[in-house]
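ingest -> validate -> predict -> emit
validate: passed (alphabet ok, no gaps, 262 aa)
predict: started
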Amino acid sequence: MGDDLDKMTVILEMKGVSKYFTRDGKIFEVLKNVNLEVLKGEILCLLGPSGCGKSTLLRQLAGFDERDGGSLFMYGKNITKPEVNRIMIFQEFNQLFPWKTVLENIMYPLKVNNIGQSKGERKDIASNYLTMVGLNEFANSYPYQLSGGMKQKAAIARALALKSEVLLMDEPFGSLDALTRGSLQNMLLKIWEETKVSIVFVTHDIQEAIILSDRMAIFGRNHGEIRGIIDNPLERPRNNGKQAFSEIYQKAYSLLELSAER
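emit:
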C-alpha cells in the first residue's frame, strides 16, 4: 500500500459527471451524476456487471469523451482531452503497432513525447521497463509472435515508460485464462509496489477486485451510478480462503445484488 500521505492526495476528481447516448431516437443515461475520487498511489477497482457504465467512466477519466454534465479534474486542473499522464490499457490485445518490434513499440511514444535525449537513451528506458514486466527476452519480437498476456505486458511497459501517473485499465486480463490472469495480477501488484503509480482498474470479477484493490467502487446495474465504496485493508498477498477476504466478498456481492433488484 502507498504512503499514508499519498493516500490523502486526490489525483483525479469527478464531480456530478453525467453521460448520455442516443440510440433509435431514445436517450440512455450511462453515467448519472457520478462523484468519485482517485487517490494518489492507490489501486481503485470499478466493479460491476456489463453495461453498468464502468468503461464509460474510465473513458471520461482518460479524456476520450465529452461530458454531458459535471466536472473532472486532475490535481484540480480541468480535464478536456487525453494526456500522457493518464494512459488507458484496453482488454483488446491489438494495442501495439504490428510492423514494429516490442522494443520499437515502447520507444516510439517516447520519441513522440520528447522523452530521452537520444535513440540510445530511449532504448535504455524501453529496455528497463520491458525487463520490469518480464519481456526483455522478447524485445526484438513482433506482436504477432506474442501471446495475449505478453501483449498486455508490453502495453503496460509502454505506459510506464511514458511516466504516466495514472494507468486506466479496462478489464485488461478479462479474456485471459485463469493461470495467465493470476500471473498478470501478481506482476501488476509488483510493478505497483515499485512505481506507486495510481491505477483505476475495471473488472466484473469480485475476487479480482479484492486481490488488487485498495478501494472498490461498486456500480449498479444499467443505472450508471456508484452504489457504494468499499475500503480493502487486507494485507498483500491476499488469500481468498481467509475470513476477512470472504467478508469483503460478501459485502461487495450484497451491493451488486441490491443493484440487480432495482
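The chain has a mean pLDDT of 91.
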